[in-house]
Design goal:
Number of domains: 2
CATH architecture of the largest domain: 2-Layer Sandwich
Structural class: alpha+beta
Distance between the termini: 59 Å
Number of strands: 12
CATH topology of the largest domain: Cytochrome Bc1 Complex, Chain A, domain 1
Strand content: 15-25%
Length: 449
């Protein structure tokens, strides 16, 4: 067992003999503990034979087994006054709950049953299959979700990072118990798991609880058939991004537009400058896009910029939902703001405002044990250092206007952006984008009826 306790750090990390890692942070003055079981597997770890399986398994973790079934899981957490939730991302799956300190050990029992020993029986698989198919249909009925999926496909063309986390109708309908059991056995190994806790916890006591109660449930793991789907993971970085347009026709009141390009990887030293760029450009009520498009001109209700970061690549973009008769005007304004963010450094006032915004949001959020626990688990499972908060604040404060401008020129160059759109009249979008100089020259337009 290896134990590390960084000098001056509020957290402690222990790696157990089988590779499972435990990370905790004691928060004085609280009675709760935010628990998380983080599995280092997400949609990017899927190939064409198991698309959507990470998310499918997340659903099935709640079905339990012969020792504690779905009702038993629900009754346990209901009975202690809390909820257990889960999420699947591109790069990990997490099960999490916030519980009173006296319920930590028993909650780890239930977490262990869920993570290591889901029964994966046919009736449960079939019922959750229908739930996920409804989830896919729900997304298809939401133009704003569809346009973001199209944007992902454009910026990460042909790579799992560009595939829907929920999978496809075809892949979910084809999934069988043996396939899911093999996926579980392949990915849900202790060496691929982090258990986190923040709040009223003692690190050494918690490590023993994880060993004696959480890990003990491995003995109930579902049996795995010997043949079936290849579970080989995809560990290559996505290829170059080629600016492309995809315009999808759909009966909708608004035109939903996304301009998207490559961002920076999660570990890039410029990540704090990127966060400030995003805040200044479009991800705050005082940002340039929000002020110009919504507040001054009243052209759209929803407009924002966004960033996402993965192990080896990132994404940046702009979203706006607008009525068809305003598409051309909105795209002209977006183009003007793109030109401004890539040619003019932010003013000192903008930079100070953005720094105050980020610092304030970060420090205020850390009054929550859930946020603290998520910070620990997500950092460790994705291979990021758990940086002391003071150091993060120092890095944010050290960013200059020239740092922001340089990154904006790399990320938001109009010539490097793809265009995704879901609209009733794609011809209007095509014309507006062409007039604004935002229609990629080498486009692959797939216009659905």
């Amino acid at each position: 067992m290896q134990d590390s306790h960084p000098i001056g750090a509020a957290h402690r990390t222990t790696e157990l003999e089988d590779g499972l890692r435990v990370v905790t942070e004691r928060v004085p003055g609280v009675r709760s503990a935010a628990l998380g079981a983080w599995i280092g597997t997400g949609s990017r770890d899927e190939n064409d034979g198991c698309r959507g399986y990470a998310h499918f398994l997340e659903h099935l973790l709640f079905k339990g087994n012969e020792r504690i079934d779905a009702e038993g899981i629900s009754r346990w957490f209901d009975g202690i006054g809390t909820d257990v939730n889960a999420a699947t991302t591109r790069e990990y799956t997490v099960v999490h709950a916030r519980v009173l300190d006296r319920h930590v050990g028993a909650s780890l029992d239930t977490f262990g049953e869920m993570v290591f020993a889901p029964a994966l029986v046919g009736d449960d698989i079939d019922s959750e299959r229908e739930v996920i198919l409804e989830e896919i249909a729900m997304y298809e009925d939401s133009p704003s979700d569809v346009v973001h999926e199209l944007a992902d496909e454009l910026v990460f063309a042909g790579h799992p990072l560009g595939m829907p986390i929920v999978g496809t109708t075809e892949s979910i309908e084809a999934a069988r118990r043996g396939d899911l059991a093999r996926f579980h056995a392949h990915h849900y190994a202790p060496g691929n798991i982090v258990v986190s806790a923040a709040g009223a916890v003692d690190h050494d006591e918690f490590v023993e609880l994880v060993r004696d109660r959480f890990l003990a449930k491995r003995t109930g793991a579902a049996s795995v058939p010997a043949d079936g789907t290849d579970m080989a993971t995809v560990d290559t970085a996505p290829g170059p991004h080629v600016p492309t347009a995809e315009l999808r026709a759909k009966d909708t009141e608004q035109s939903h537009l996304v301009l998207v390009g490559r961002g920076i990887r999660r570990s890039d030293d410029r990540r704090h400058a990127a966060a400030l760029l995003d805040t200044i450009f479009g991800n705050a009520p005082s940002s340039r896009l929000f002020i110009e498009i919504r507040e001054r001109r009243g052209l759209a209700y929803s407009v924002y910029s966004f960033l996402s970061n993965h192990a080896d690549a990132g994404q940046c973009g702009i979203y706006v939902g607008v009525r068809p008769d305003r598409v051309g005007t909105v795209l002209e304004v977006v183009r003007a703001e793109l030109d401004r963010i890539t040619t003019e450094p932010p003013t000192q006032e903008e930079l100070d405002l953005a720094k105050g915004h980020l610092e304030g949001r970060m420090l205020l959020s850390l009054e929550s044990t859930t946020v603290r626990g998520n910070r620990l688990g997500a950092s460790l499972v994705t291979g990021m250092p758990i940086e002391p908060l003071e150091r993060t604040v120092e890095r944010i404060r050290a960013v200059t206007a020239e740092d922001v401008l340089s990154l904006a020129q790399e990320l938001f160059d109009p010539a490097g952006l793809s265009l995704a759109a879901v609209a009733e009249d794609v011809d209007v979008v095509r014309a507006g984008a062409a007039d604004a100089g935002l229609l990629p020259a080498g486009r692959r337009e797939a216009v659905a009826p």
